[in-house]
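Troubleshooting entry. Yesterday's outputs looked truncated, so today I'm pasting the complete records for two proteins to confirm everything comes through intact. If either block looks cut off, that's the bug. Protein one:
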Amino acid sequence: MGRRGPGPADRPPAGVGDREALLGRRHPCHDARVPGRLYLGTSGFAYDEWVGAFYPEGTRREDMLAYYAERFPTVEVNYTFRRYPSERTLLAWRERVPDGFRFALKANQRITHTLRLADADEAVGLFLERARLLGDRLGPILFQCPPSLRYDRTLLERFLGGLPPVLAAMEFRHPSWEEARDLLAEQGVAWVVAETDERPAPDGELAADPFAFLRLRRTSYGEDELRAWAERLRPVLAAGRDAYVYFKHEGHGDAPAFARRLGELLAAERP
């Protein structure tokens, strides 16, 4: 799929209106009186080490997703970064989750790491063709860029200009990309806030235009840390913005426990 029509500098941001419609909140115009939706879950769900801690003893792998989806409204799928899931797998996932559940898929590495966002229209189109088999269960597509990729406004404009209508979020791991925040917001693409043990999340107000996407990937979270994240998320939701929040999967059921506790804290604080 080659580039079509005029370049990004000669036309309105491609797909922005369609991406706004996909948010499902634009008809109330993110009215501050309409609380945003909290999509809270984990990165992945099919882990044998969760049996006994999160899943009941004896739970089979093929039954894990249905059990998970009864307790959380979303999951981040990372293995799509390495390979494309089969049509059969995606259709099975769609059938095993309830209405309102959302899969956030990490974009394939060909887009972000091989092509490094350059001339990626065809690769993006192929990935989305498969992802859309999830139907209305498809949530945001996470484009996680390599740490070696430095800020390039022209590169980003061209990539975003060719992005089809889809909920999209971008994670940049080189500090030079900080100045790209406004461009992403203009194009209706979320800025990902991520933290690890080695790289804490920046302080301050969370980026939430058009929605918040938060990846909490530290080894452990104590009560005070979860309360701090609840405090930062509360104004996002109160302003009518949706928030997608995912805890790292490693550990014997720790991630579901962290997610459940954060949800409890937010439920207690919301009107």
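Protein two, checking that the full record survives here as well:
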Amino acid sequence: MGSTSLPNTLLTANLSSKLPYQSTLSINNHKVYTEVVDNNKTRARGLMFRQSLPQEAGMLFVFQDEQPRCFWMKNTSIPLSIAYINSQGEIFDIFDLQPHDETSVCSTQPAMFALEVNQGWFSQKGITIGDKIHMDSPIRK
């Protein structure tokens, strides 16, 4: 069974749980196993207070609409990379984030999604601006 478009699947799903959902995403045939956070409480906590993140894991932040987005690394010990993604599932920004840096790192255009992974994961996989994200497995608790 092939992958489905990320935005269509996410926008039709009921994403209102207090706990993160899980899903498998692929970008250029590279899989990343994500926690999906879709409400203010889970998005605000993000990857704070964690000491590690498995190599092929990440966190997908889902918003209700496209707006400029900003992230920081308060209370986050893991060096991360973030991709900002539009409603069509296209990556338009990738930034590296440093542990405990409280400087806001903002998208250059409105984003509906943000994907955080271990720092360097995107570059190691050859993932760049313009690549699209696809959902391989349905969102589940």
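Both blocks look complete. Sanity check on protein two: Helices lie at 6-12, 40-45, 121-124.
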